[in-house]
Design a protein that fits this description.
Elements lengths: L3 H8 L7 E5 L3 H12 L3 E6 L13 E3 L5 H8 L4 E4 L6 H9 L8 H8 L1 H10 L7 E4 L2 H11 L4 E4 L9 E2 L4 H13 L4 E4 L4 E11 L5 E3 L3 E6 L2 E7 L6 H18 L3 E10 L4 E7 L9 H4 L4 H9 L13 E8 L9 H11 L4 E4 L9 E9 L2 H17 L12
Parallel strand pairs: 1-2, 1-4, 2-3
Antiparallel strand pairs: 5-8, 6-7, 6-8, 9-10, 9-11, 9-13, 11-12, 12-15, 13-14, 15-17, 16-17
Helix pairs in contact: 2-11, 4-5, 5-6, 7-8
Length: about 400
């Protein structure tokens, strides 16, 4: 029987630059493709539709579902590493690919902790890392008992699949919890409950790790959430206690090594009012909290991810400015009449220092369609500019009333 490793071995050309396969054709794959061009590499993507962000720009596309083992095999054929735009690939499929000789990075034994929030919580607890109080919810009584013990409201989460506020609820009392849990369990959704943390702010510690074991960190950043979705990233996090920042980076590095992560990983953290850190989520792929580094660091997360999965020496992550602020461009409640191209024209006329990254996505409410990075010295000024620019690109309205056609 011919295995994928046989095919890979026959198709390998030692004189050629590597091909990396990324599962998923979203904006993360699109921006990874941009980084691969500079490195002389080829990024192949497994996309679902021709208009997926990455499928629009890379010439090497396999169309199919991440749930389909045959599509995964086709995408992996001849590539030097297989990695991810999202965490939703069934690990049982990835185990098959590993057995057939595919270099899956991160490996499925690590990826499971980014896919399954309950497995992640249990693993982190076993490692002695600080996490919110939690419990698996198999019945309404589990949720009600948790709320009575840990306080209302608490955070109810889908164990798999939730992101950007989806799959997350905050029942205020037993009646609301009963309705939510009954409905989700009836639809086959596995649930867990977590205590609601009184937090000062949310942080993210981004790291990269290679198979060789080399690791690198970026400065810890602050993430600003709105409606459960990342809106703004401030790099580095301002007024962060030096010891707390070092603890966050060390925790992320030790986690990456302990879980066997290959590639970049974001560790989303809660900073409490008493100066403690709690681990919220893990993402074993490029992450929204790392977009600032495309323009604000010597080596951004997309290039670093490629270096890591191919076991290259990792790049310098030093910031290029005292502060970089990233602001997401989100689809407006109603798409403006002004075209995106005209909005971009006016933005550059007013803010020539704005670094804009558009994803090739259609506009719909709250959809991430791009982001803007602004570098500078004064965090207040830089943040105001970044948020104003992103709002303009979303709505074609300047928050300060500036008229692009005026004198």
């Amino acid at each position: 029987m011919t295995t994928l490793s046989d095919v890979t071995a026959r198709s390998f050309d030692p004189s050629a630059m590597p091909t990396v396969t990324m599962i998923g054709g979203g904006q993360l794959a699109r921006m990874t493709h941009q980084a691969s061009i500079a490195l002389g590499q080829r990024l192949r993507v497994l996309a679902q539709q021709p208009d997926d962000p990455a499928a629009q720009v890379t010439p090497d596309v396999v169309f199919g579902s991440h749930d389909d083992l045959s599509a995964l095999r086709e995408a992996a054929r001849g590539s030097h590493a297989l990695t991810f735009d999202h965490e939703h690939v069934p690990t049982e499929h990835l185990e098959v690919l590993v057995a057939e000789g595919v270099n899956v990075a991160p490996p499925p034994r690590a990826l499971i902790f980014a896919q399954d929030k309950l497995a992640m919580r249990r693993k982190l607890s076993s490692l002695g890392l600080p996490v919110p109080a939690f419990v698996e919810v198999d019945a309404v009584s589990d949720a009600v008992a948790f709320g009575d013990e840990h306080g209302w409201p608490f955070v109810l989460k889908a164990v798999r699949g939730g992101y950007d506020g989806r799959g997350v609820w905050m029942p205020a009392d037993a009646a609301e919890a009963t309705e939510l849990v009954s409905d989700q369990l009836a639809h086959g959704v596995q649930l867990l409950a977590e205590s609601k943390v009184s937090l000062k702010r949310e942080l993210s510690a981004m790291v990269a790790r290679s198979p060789f074991g080399q690791a690198a960190t970026w400065p810890v950043v602050e993430t600003v959430q709105r409606n459960g979705q990342c809106a703004v990233v401030i790099a580095p996090a301002q007024d962060l206690d030096e010891d707390l920042g070092a603890r966050a980076e060390t925790m992320a590095l030790e986690l990456a090594a302990g879980l066997g992560v290959v590639g970049v990983m974001a560790v989303e953290l809660f900073e409490t009012h008493d100066g403690e850190l709690l681990v919220n989520e893990l993402a074993m792929r490029p992450h929204n909290s790392g977009h600032w580094g495309m323009d604000g660091a010597r080596t951004g997360q997309f290039e670093q991810h490629l270096r890591a999965v191919l076991d290259y020496p990792l790049g310098d992550t030093s910031p290029l400015a005292p502060v970089t602020v990233m602001s997401n461009i989100l689809g407006a409640a109603e798409a403006p009449e002004m075209s995106m191209d005209e909005r971009l024209h006016h933005l550059f006329a007013r803010m020539p220092d704005a670094k804009v990254h558009l994803y090739g996505k259609g506009e719909r409410p709250d959809r991430k369609i791009g982001h803007i990075n602004i570098l500078g010295d004064d965090v207040v000024v830089v943040r105001e500019k970044a948020e104003r620019a992103a709002h303009w690109m979303s709505t074609a309205v300047w928050t300060d009333g500036w008229d692009p056609h005026g004198e």
